[in-house]
Design goal:
With 129 residues, this protein is mainly beta. The chain is 11% helix and 34% strand. It has helices at 23-30, 79-84; strands at 4-10, 16-21, 35-36, 42-43, 51-56, 89-93, 96-99, 104-110, 116-120. The strands form 3 sheets. Strands 6-7-8-9 form a 4-stranded antiparallel β-sheet, with no helix packed on it. The protein has a 3-stranded antiparallel β-sheet with strand order 2-1-5, covered by helices on one side. A two-stranded antiparallel ribbon has the order 3-4. The longest helix is centred in the N-terminal third of the chain and has 8 residues, at 23-30. The protein starts with a strand and ends in a 9-residue tail after the last strand. The structure holds zinc ion. Zinc ion binds at residues 10, 12-13, 15, 37, 39, 41.
C-alpha cells in the first residue's frame, strides 16, 4: 500500500497535524470515535469535526510493486475500460479519482517505473451515535 502525507489543521486550536498512511487509513482515522489533538484537547467526536485537510501528497512509489491482496484493481486511465464499465471518471486531485456514476473513489500505487495501479477505495463510514 502506498503512503501519502496528509497535512491538516485543527479548526479549534489551530495546530497543524500530519498523518502518514494510505487514503483508506486516513479516512478511518477521520471517522474515529474520539480525537486527541496535539494542541492538548480531547474530544468525544471524530476528527472530521475538527480537522481541515490542507494538502495531500501523492503516494510514494513502491520499489517492488505487486498487487495487494483484497484490492480491486481497475485500469481507470484506460478509456476503453471506463467506457465498457460505463464509468464517469473525475479527478479529485493528487491522483485520486471518483466515478460519478457509482461514487466509488480510486487511489493508486505507483511502481518504480512510475506506472500507476489504480484500485477501489473501500470507505468505512462510521455513524456516530
Ligand atoms: Zn486542536
Amino acid at each position: 500500500m502506498s503512503n501519502r502525507v496528509f497535512l491538516c489543521r485543527c479548526q479549534k486550536c489551530g495546530v497543524q497535524l500530519e498523518f502518514t498512511g494510505s487514503y483508506e487509513q486516513f479516512n478511518d482515522f477521520m471517522e474515529s470515535k474520539a480525537f486527541a489533538c496535539r494542541g492538548g484537547h480531547t474530544e468525544q467526536r471524530s476528527p472530521r469535526h475538527f480537522l481541515k485537510l490542507i494538502t495531500m501528497s501523492e503516494p510514494s512509489p513502491v520499489t517492488e510493486w505487486k498487487p495487494t491482496d483484497g484490492l480491486n484493481y481497475v485500469d481507470i486511465l484506460d478509456p476503453l475500460t471506463t467506457r465498457v464499465r460505463n464509468m464517469q471518471m473525475d479527478h479529485l486531485g493528487s491522483g485520486l479519482y471518483i466515478d460519478r456514476h457509482t461514487l466509488t473513489k480510486y487511489d493508486y500505487e505507483e511502481d518504480a517505473k512510475g506506472q500507476r495501479h489504480y484500485f477501489e477505495i473501500r470507505e468505512r463510514r462510521v455513524i456516530e451515535s
